[in-house]
Design a protein that fits this description.
Blueprint: H1 9-19, H2 22-30, E1 42-44, E2 51-56, H3 61-67, E3 75-81, E4 84-87, E5 100-110, E6 126-134, E7 151-155, E8 162-163, H4 167-170, E9 177-181, E10 187-188, E11 201-203, E12 225-227
Parallel strand pairs: 2-3, 3-5, 4-5, 5-6, 6-7, 7-9, 8-10, 9-11, 11-12
Antiparallel strand pairs: 1-2
Amino acid sequence: MAPARNLSLSYSTFVIALLWPAATLAASIASPESCPVTNNHCTCLFKGPFYSLRCNSMREMTDFKAVLPSIGENAAVLELDSVHLDFLPLNDLSNSSLHTLIVGNSSFQRLHNSSGMHQPAVNLHHLSLENVTFHEKVQWKQFSNLTNLQVLFVYNTSVQNVIPANFSQYVSKHLVSLTVTESNITRIERNSLELLTNLTALRISYNNLRTFARDVLPQTSKLEQLRL
């Protein structure tokens, strides 16, 4: 895998700015309210009615579960950095109000805590995996419970290296941006994105692709940006 790069706070700021009007964001930053999460691993990046939470250096699932009860309805972004657990605790966020989950410079044994296909729905709009190692390589069908996902960003992460023909049956039909870079993708099969009619940005650069078939995309594509 490529050398690790650090997650940027400005990235979270950008995401939050997309979620709320600028005036609301400015008011939240200026608010004197304190961070509702009191944990040695976590800090609030924004105070007020909406906030972003950053947690790092977790190695026990009990550390993460201790944070969950404190994540209130005004939490928008959760960043996990340098976290090393048995599995990525996506399912624990099924009742959360979080819009965005950013995971970076971390490692997990597997994506889910069980191998069953019927995982609880998680209402994330944005999932970012940067420099993440899964010892059991992630299969695309494991994203099927992220039914409202609009942005999927995968960089230098252990995922299935083929984007199969039924890929668009597994991922959210609401996707507007799909990025899979430096993740050793070797093939994109025909019709793999045919159901992603809302997709406007596709970035699959810095992989091991040799061909890109014309009929990968839907016939009525809204694609505005393509990076191979």
